[in-house]
Structures are given as C-alpha cells and as structure tokens.
Amino acid sequence: MEDRSPAHFPFYGWLGALIVVGAETGLILRQPFVSRWFTPIVWTGYILFADALSFRLRGRSLIRSEPRQALMLPWLSVGCWMIFELYNLRLGNWYYVGVPENPWVRNLAYLWSFATIFPGIFETADVLEGLGLFRQVRVSPRPMTPFGAALSFLLGIAFLTIPPILPAPARPFTFAFVWTGFVLFLEPVNRQLGAPSCYRAWEEGNPRPTLLLLTAGGVCGLLWEFWNYWATAGWRYTIPWPLDFGVYYFRMPLLGMLGFPPFAMECYAMYHFLRRMLGGDKFW
Questions:
Q1: What ranges make up the beta strands (E) of 144-265?
Q2: Running DSSP on this structure, what letter comes out for residue 134?
Q3: What does the alpha-carbon distance between residue 73 and residue 55 come to, in Å, rounded to a whole number?
Q4: Which of 2, 95, 235, 262 lies at a 20 to 30 A Cα distance from 58?
C-alpha cells in the first residue's frame, strides 16, 4: 500500500454516485425492482465511487491500475462467501427474505450481491489509506517466532473445524470463531508463501494494513446493515440470547457488529492465499 500524488476523479465515480442516489431515491419511492435489487445495485454504485475516490487520493486504484485484478476479485468474493454460507447451513445465524422466487433470478441476485463483498471492503480500505488514516502509526519490529506461527495455524484449524461438529444447540454461539478462524489459519500460511500478509507487516513494525482493514470492515458493516434495513430483499438474524440481548444497530444485534472488522481481515487473507495459489501474481 503506497501513497501516490493526487490525480483526477474518474468519470465512473460520478456514475457510481448517481447509482447510489438513484437507488436511494427508488427505495424511498418503493419502486419494486429497485427495492428488491437494492443491495447489489447500491453496492455496485458505492464500489465505483470508492474506486474513483481512491484514484483521486492515491493516484492509483483497482479499476484504473489493476483491471485484471478488479475483474477477478468479484469471482473470488463469490467463491469465498459461499464458504460462509456453508457454515451457516450448520450454524444457522442468518436467513434471506424477499428474494426472487425464480431460482435462476434468485441465484443471479445472490451472485451479484456476493460479488460486491470483497471489492466493497478493499475499496474502502484504499480510500481510508488515501485519506492518510494511521499513516504515522508504527510499532517496534519483532519477528514472529515459529511457535507463534504454528500456534496461530493450529488455533485457526480448531476455530474452523469445531463449530460445525458441535451439538446443534451450541452451534449458533460459535460463529465468532469462524469470523476469526481464517485469519489465524491463513495469515501464517501467506507469510510463509511470501504473499501479502498482515502478520509480516506487523513483524516489520507496520500495523497499518491491519488497522485499515479493521476500520474498513467496520465501515462496510455499518453500511451493510443500514442499507439492508430498508431493502425489500435482504437477510435476517437468528442469533440466540445472550448474544442477542435486545440492543440492535438496525437489524443486527449490537454484539454482532464486532464481527465485521475481523471479517475484513479474513477476506484479505483468503484473497491473497487464493491469488497466490492460482498464479495471480503472474497473470492478474
């Protein structure tokens, strides 16, 4: 993540802003198509706007500077999110309402929505970087010990494998482990493979990538839940008491909001692991 001199604001950023405003207007007017497809529409507009803003602030962005990566990112976003959907089949923390009845149209809605997850998080992190957030934050460099890397790896395996095999009454309480397990599991792997890694950045005395991702996850979580509240088609939660103690940010139990920052780190770890495995460093 390097800073560049400011550049112009690309035209598609204005298009993205118009999409967001148009989607919000259609939602207020309860236009049926917009209300049902609001989530993927508004996030597409947000991503375009955020990318343009990132380019304006940093002189580079995913779409303008790394177009092949920008094209692959949505597909990896879909594939990785499906892993969490599989976990949810066992843990049962959310379900969807208002989705199209036709299975082909419904699957298209899912595909489009899931494709915006990684781009939304990474574009937000780039904008925050361009704004100079955490620019001066440094820590003392400290190499990670082999024991620390192995412990992280083994804890990650435990966090990812134990929740689905627990007795049914206990499973809904364990999704916090899934929200952190991929970080613990994949970060030491990425570090060993030489892929981008928050662990390695910490070793070098640079906590900024971690802090940017955590903040971006929080920002995206606020937007996801805010926009989901008004949309006709969206998700609902079944988080049990005492995790759901009656205090909400829109439809999300307040405690559940803590899952979004580490989820952003998981997306980062999963993306860079898959990119390295698929040869993306050479081809996209």
A1: 234-237, 248-249, 252-253
A2: T
A3: 18
A4: 262
To 5 degrees, how large is the angle CA 256–CA 92–CA 220? 35
> How far is the CA of 212 from the CAs of 16, 18, 96, 194, in angstroms?
23, 27, 30, 21
* Closest to 268 measured CA to CA, from 174, 183, 159, 177: 183
User: How far is residue 148's CA from residue 105's CA, in Å, rounded to a whole number?
Assistant: 47
Query: How far is 232 from 39, CA to CA, in rounded Å?
Result: 9
Domain ranges of the chain: 67-283
Go through the chain and tell me how many residues it has: 284
Band (pLDDT 50/70/90 cuts) for residue 243 is confident
pLDDT in tens, 213-234: 999 999 999 999 999 999 999 9
Return the pLDDT at 279.
Answer: 84
- Give the separation between CA 173 and CA 92, rounded to whole angstroms: 10
Q: What pLDDT score was predicted for residue 3?
A: 46
H or E stretch at 95 = strand 94-97
Quote the pLDDT of residue 195.
94
Looking at the whole model, is its pTM more than 0.70? yes
Average pLDDT rounded to a whole number, residues 49-55: 97
* Secondary structure of residue 240 in the 3-state scheme: coil
* CA 132/CA 163 separation, integer angstroms: 39
Residue with tokens 């507009």, as numbered in its chain: 45
